[in-house]
Every structure is written in C-alpha cells, then in structure tokens.
Design a protein that fits this description.
The protein is mainly α. Helices cover 80% and strands 0% of the residues. Helix 1 packs antiparallel against helix 3, helix 3 packs antiparallel against helix 6 and helix 6 runs antiparallel to helix 7.
Length: 160
C-alpha cells in the first residue's frame, strides 16, 4: 500500500468518488422511496469518508507492520468506530443506491436489478468470501447498472 508514494491515489479517488455520489440524491425521481434512499445514501457516504480516513492513516504507517496491526486491533475492538465506519456504515452506501434503483424496477428492470441484486454481493465478496476479484466484478456490475440508470434518466429528461 505504501508504494503509492507520495500520495495514496487509490483512496483519494475512492474518497472523491464517494463524495460525488451526493449528486445521486438529486437526479432520481422525487418520492418517498427517494427520500429514504437519499438519507441512507448520505449516511453511507459519510461512513465511506470515515473509512477512507482510516485507510489514509493506515497508509501513513508505511512499512511499520506492527503499528498497522495495533491500529487494526484497536479499531476492531472499538465498536464506536468499527460498526459505523467499517462494517455497517459503508454498506449503507450500497443499500441507499439500491433503494434509488428500486424506483426504476418497472421501467428499466434489467439495470435496476443489476444494482439491487449485486449490492449484497459486494459485501458478501468482501466480508464473507474475502475475494478481491469477486468484489471488483461486483462493483463493476453495480456501477454499470447505475450508469445505465443515469443514462436512461438523462434520455427521459431530453424527451420531456
């Protein structure tokens, strides 16, 4: 991880991408489901920012593996950090975006199902399977579904 000197580009891009997801709360139809989805997505974005912060701190230790282990252990033993910023919080981002996608289940079924069905796969591949390839594939399918929904939304705007 520390080979990304002088900047941890991966986590900076991750952080910027998460913050840009705030715009999803404004582009989807305004209804009760959207309000709930926007709230959950916002909580997920906040948690994702916290997780990126933890990763930046971990990256800053460089090759000091004992410090990394100590920090990981401390985070794991601190429920006020591990649950909102590592386990539950970032999952809310995927849940919120899947709730947004549910608005399109009737009009754009395939894209909506790509997002809804794959959202749990991201978490399962990371926490249960601990398989990076499955996680990347899940994230790509999830992102593709969102992109298709956004493009469909844009097409609807231009027609109206």
């Amino acid at each position: 991880m520390y080979f990304q000197k002088p900047i941890d580009f991966a986590h900076w891009f991750n952080l910027i991408g998460a913050v840009l997801l705030f715009s999803f709360n404004r582009v989807f139809p305004k209804n009760t489901l959207n309000s709930v989805a926007s709230f959950v997505t916002t909580l997920g974005i906040i948690a994702h920012v916290g997780l990126c912060t933890i990763d930046f701190i971990m990256w800053s230790f460089g090759n000091n593996d004992s410090a990394k282990v100590a920090l990981s252990e401390h985070i794991s033993n601190t429920p006020a950090i591990v649950y909102p910023f590592v386990i539950i919080g970032p999952s809310l981002l995927y849940i919120g975006l899947a709730l947004h996608a549910a608005n399109f289940i009737k009009t754009n079924t395939l894209s909506a199902l790509m997002v809804i069905a794959v959202a749990p796969a991201v978490g399962i591949s990371f926490f249960v399977l601990k398989n990076g390839i499955c996680m990347v594939v899940s994230c790509l399918v999830f992102a593709l579904g969102l992109l298709l929904l956004l493009n469909r939304k844009e097409a609807d705007k231009t027609i109206a």
